[in-house]
Please model this.
Amino acid sequence: MNKKISPFASIYLAIVFLILYAPIFFLVFYSFNKGGNMHDFKGFTLDWYKELFSDTRLLIIVLNTLIIALLSAAISTVIGILGALAIRYVRRQQTKNALLSLNNVLIVSPDVIIGASFLILFTMVGLKLGFTSVLISHIAFCIPIVVIMILPKLQEMSPSLIDAARDLGASRMDVLTKVILPYITPGIFAGFFMALTYSLDDFAVTFFVTGNGFSTLSVEIYSLARRGVSLNINALSSLLFVFTIILVIGYYFIAQHNGKPGKMGVRK
Model:
């Protein structure tokens, strides 16, 4: 039976979404302001976006950010799959609980502590801060996210599917590649996109492990904001917001596609 949403609940949801999205739309709106400030709209212009795309240094930073995000998401997804499988199929309950606890440490720990820990580690081992240090840090805090996204799919998977595959003569590799991985595909995609967005969005950890000559968008936006309000920041933030929406929509359609009968993924 479908229950109607009460007027009070509708008003509450509207207020929540207004609080969440009003500042973003305000930022996007003034990115087209010809007046060059955030309080007096004097006309529509694309000059801030043109100036943004003419900044070679900023474009290199955007490219660095995308490379870091894609690499860290891909590598952490592969490691996260192996980690989720290890946690799911380990026999001893104490070992499973210990692995789950270790996995959750990076999720519940403050970003400042994680960033400072990585900074100390890289300094001790003599690793130069830059692309490599940022990539390793992003992989490290993305792996637990991927594991958390994949584990529920593994837990809801019936053991009879694996038993049936083995009875039919499937090897361990066949069971993994033709039974388990297709079943948990929605969780894999969810983990990849979550890792991608976390990497793109991260500031605190990245701020600690970036070196001279290398930066990401989050750190660069922070640096620009400290110099003063500029509508270049609005234009850049607006493009990031649009890119995030595209990622969410893409993940939604992939999840819908994988959820259809006869397609790879969860079957009804």
